């Protein structure tokens, strides 16, 4: 979801919460009016005011978050996937050793995008070995690694 859409959603939820708080506040005011005989000095009025102010503060904070996302939130970078043809990399494959070729072929099978952890599983090589091979292939300009959370996504350069 785009940050702008999330911002609109958050603002909408804040408006809904505001309506609920307003309805609750009116109901509490009616209850206090009928049950409290002390007038304006009744302690329940202070409680209603405090709860209303806290609620308004929370709603204001939520609206600010939504507005920030609408106007200043940047959308996350999308990974563009383009189908890779094995024929395009035949020349490159000839210059690589057996393990590098095996790694590159697994990436190509994944249509040019694969998680590094998945690559380790598919090649049956150690994490360290795959990392070193990826370093070499990245140094040759064949692929690039991008951080995604706790893992790397391997992408063939076009």
Topology, pairings included?
Layout: H1 3-35, H2 43-71, H3 90-94, H4 98-109, E1 113-115, H5 116-123, H6 127-139, E2 143-148, E3 151-156
Antiparallel strand pairs: 1-3, 2-3
Task: Please provide a written account of the structure.
The protein has helices at about 5-35, 45-70, 90-95, 100-110, 115-125, 125-140, and strands at about 115, 145-150, 150-155. It is mainly alpha-helical and about 160 residues long. The protein folds into 2 domains: about 5-70; about 85-155, Orthogonal Bundle (Arc Repressor Mutant, subunit A), CATH 1.10.10. The protein has a 3-stranded antiparallel β-sheet. Strand 2 and strand 3 form a beta hairpin. The longest helix is centred in the N-terminal third of the chain and has 33 residues, at about 5-35. It is rod-shaped. It starts with a helix and ends with a strand.
Write a short abstract of this structure.
By secondary structure, this protein is mainly α. It folds into two domains: 69 residues; 71 residues, Arc Repressor Mutant, subunit A. It has six helices and three strands; from the N terminus they run ααααβααββ.
């Amino acid at each position: 979801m785009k940050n702008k859409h999330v911002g609109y959603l958050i603002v909408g939820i804040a408006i809904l919460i505001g309506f609920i708080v307003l309805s609750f506040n009116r109901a509490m005011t009616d209850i206090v009016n009928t049950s409290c005989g002390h007038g304006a000095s009744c302690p329940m009025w202070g409680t209603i005011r405090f709860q209303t102010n806290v609620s308004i503060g929370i709603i204001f904070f939520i609206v600010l978050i939504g507005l920030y996302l609408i106007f200043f939130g940047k959308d996350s970078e999308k990974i563009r996937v383009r189908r890779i043809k094995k024929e395009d990399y035949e020349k490159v494959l000839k210059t690589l050793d057996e393990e590098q070729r095996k790694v590159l072929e697994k990436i190509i099978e994944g249509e040019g995008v694969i998680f590094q952890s998945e690559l380790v599983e598919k090649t049956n090589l150690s994490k360290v070995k795959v990392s070193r091979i990826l370093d070499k292939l990245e140094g040759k300009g064949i692929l690039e690694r991008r951080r995604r959370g706790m893992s790397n996504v391997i992408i063939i350069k076009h």
